[in-house]
Amino acid sequence: HTRFVVLGFIVAAYMITYMDRVxxxxxxxxxxxxxxxSMITMGWIFAAFRWGYALFQIPGGWLGDRIGGRRALxxxxxxxxxxxxxxxxxxxxxxxxxxxxxxxxxxAGAFPIATRSLSAWILPTERGFAQGVTxxxxxxxxxxxxxxxxxxxxxxxxxxxxxxxxxxxxxxxGAWFYYYRxxxxxHRHV
Length: 190
What we know:
Layout: H1 2-35, H2 39-55, H3 57-67, H4 69-86, H5 93-107, H6 110-121, H7 127-156, H8 159-179
Helix pairs in contact: 1-6, 1-7, 1-8, 2-5, 3-4, 3-6, 4-5, 4-6, 4-8
């Protein structure tokens, strides 16, 4: 039973990663109007995330190997959630680009660390299923996000989705750190 709760946590993390990625794309027209960004400027801001993500994939995986999935995944989720929320306070293209780079830097460790975390808990005969569920969850998160972002923006402004999604990540990180253990032998329910 406990291993499926762990899988549920990873499913939620995968959804949150894609929600946090897609929220910017959904808010582009409103951000452009509010901050006066051109499409080229938005392209640079999107690229900033990709560069942070690409450059820190390997260090993120190394971090998970070094300190374990419990601490490492909580740490990277807190990191990227902070920069998701801080995106709401961007006042210029540079400030938004820096926030998105640092967001990408944190999110880069998510999939390597989550995969490492699952491998300790999911039986080898169930790992294909677990990977399928987690990857499907990320796409569901991406599919649900545009409508949710638009609803939040209409009601509260373009900053609201960034703040709320950041808070969601922080809540997830706290629950993960409380519940998850790096091996089943360390968990009180096993």
